[in-house]
Amino acid sequence: xxxxxxxxxxxxxxxxxxxxxxxxxxxxxxxxxxxxxxxxxxxxxxxxxxxxxxxxxxxxxxxxxxxxxxxxxxxxxxxxxxxxxxxxxxxxxxxxx
Length: 97
Fold this sequence. Notes:
Elements: H1 17-30, E1 35-38, H2 46-50, H3 52-66, H4 80-83, E2 85-86, E3 91-94
Parallel strand pairs: 1-3
Antiparallel strand pairs: 2-3
């Protein structure tokens, strides 16, 4: 399996990184690609906040079955079933917190 990694980074806040990342993920999913977005924004957790409703729904669902899910900055190990938020078709998110 071939995978590619894309990183949207800038030191300036408000430059559109979060919107660009989520739009690019939707574009790749429409092309049939499986996408994992990882929120590594330590300061604002921008991508996690962008999908806050989905993250909260996932948290409620998972807590009942598997215990509290972890974000990227909350644990040293991850369980894809417990910690990854399934968004739209073929798009997943590993939230910051």
